[in-house]
Recover the amino acids of this structure.
């Protein structure tokens, strides 16, 4: 195993448990291939760990173990077993869940989701890519899946020098898979759309919303396939309007509304969320509940302020459009937007809207997306419920 030497300065974050080592932290490295396993020491000859290296990536090393151990099939079997036991303990009895969540489970760059026996995986690092065939075999042996689908067609693979790929690697993934979550049925095409086909991470927040929507008029903005809107309708909402820029996503929403017998209370509109909020606000439209769950407005630290401006605009408009005492459900899925920044933005928006907001729930991703305090990036989803009143 080749050895990489790190500068002693700036190692505090890594020594506290963060697995990322940046190119600027490396003092000495031999010639290496992307995805190669290396032994990592500090310049004071202190052992740090073993991990993948990719000299073409800004995050050059992703640590896999703090022990001097081989990275082989037995290592990956151990990691998969640990991930399985966590979900069986903390997320039992669900039909759709995330079995492996990259750094959260000590497997940087691997996502593994299940939808009622059908599995979808994504790989974003050259190191994991080298072990893809081994991991597929382990998944088959451990989970006995009906099918395994590779959804590696996302652009960030380019940063690791990886090709864009998608397709079945085992079995045949059907064009429509149905799951049930908290009495609501969802059908989806896991081969298309965002993430691996569904926002699994919002499971707990959808369930919390379900107890607050009886006889309410709901706006689900940036709805994707209407997960929040359908959960609301299934649990007694008077009606729901789902808004998304993707007509294909809304078509799946309609199918699911029919599947749940709520089509008579379902409405949808293909539109940019910013534009629609502005138009409905100018028309004086009011709702009892407004859900704002947009895609990440920033994937870079230097774009945080601009992203906060976008979040403020949609939340301010939503606050103005709520009935007195209405419910605002607002989320961000960017790990660059820290919770305190998001709350400060919401306070500013409420002041500009001349509203008082009272927090009734603070949520994050489900336990199948584990949060490790040593790795702040693992806590990416922030979801707040506020009751909104006039000043």
């Amino acid at each position: 195993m080749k050895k990489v030497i790190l500068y002693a300065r700036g190692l505090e974050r890594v020594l506290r448990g963060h697995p990322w080592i940046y190119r600027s932290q490396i003092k000495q490295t031999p010639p290496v291939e992307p995805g190669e396993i290396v032994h990592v020491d500090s310049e004071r000859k202190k052992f740090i760990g073993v991990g993948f290296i990719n000299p073409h990536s800004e995050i050059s090393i992703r640590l896999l173990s703090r022990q001097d151990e081989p990275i082989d099939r037995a290592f990956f079997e151990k990691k998969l077993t640990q991930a399985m036991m966590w979900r069986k303990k903390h997320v039992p009895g669900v039909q759709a869940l995330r079995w492996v969540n990259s750094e959260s489970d000590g497997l940087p760059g691997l996502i593994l989701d299940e939808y009622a026996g059908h599995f979808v995986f994504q790989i974003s690092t050259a190191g994991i890519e080298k072990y893809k065939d081994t991991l597929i075999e382990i998944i088959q042996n451990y989970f006995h899946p009906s099918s395994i689908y590779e959804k590696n067609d996302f652009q960030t693979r380019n940063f690791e020098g990886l090709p864009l790929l998608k397709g079945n690697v085992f079995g045949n993934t059907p064009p429509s898979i149905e799951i049930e979550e908290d009495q609501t049925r969802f059908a989806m095409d896991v081969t298309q759309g965002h993430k691996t086909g569904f926002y699994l991470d919002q499971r707990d927040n959808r369930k919390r919303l379900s107890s607050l929507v009886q006889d309410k008029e709901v706006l689900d903005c940036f709805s994707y396939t209407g997960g929040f809107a359908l959960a609301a309708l299934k649990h007694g909402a008077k009606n729901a309007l789902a808004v998304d820029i993707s007509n294909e996503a809304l078509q799946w929403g309609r199918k699911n509304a029919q599947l749940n017998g709520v089509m008579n209370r379902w409405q949808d509109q293909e539109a940019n969320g910013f534009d629609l909020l502005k138009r409905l606000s100018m028309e004086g439209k009011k709702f009892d509940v407004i859900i704002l769950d947009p895609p990440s407005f920033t994937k870079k630290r230097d774009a945080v302020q601009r992203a906060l401006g976008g979040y403020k605009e949609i939340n301010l408009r939503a606050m103005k459009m709520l009935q007195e005492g209405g419910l605002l459900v607002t989320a961000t899925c960017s790990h660059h937007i820290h919770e305190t920044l998001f709350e400060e933005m919401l306070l500013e928006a409420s002041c500009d809207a001349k509203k008082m907001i009272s927090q009734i729930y603070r949520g994050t991703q489900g336990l199948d997306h584990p949060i490790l305090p040593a790795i702040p990036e693992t806590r990416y989803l922030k979801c707040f419920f506020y009751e909104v009143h006039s000043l």
Observations:
- The mean pLDDT is 95.
- Residues 182-390 form a domain with the Rossmann fold fold (CATH 3.40.50.150).
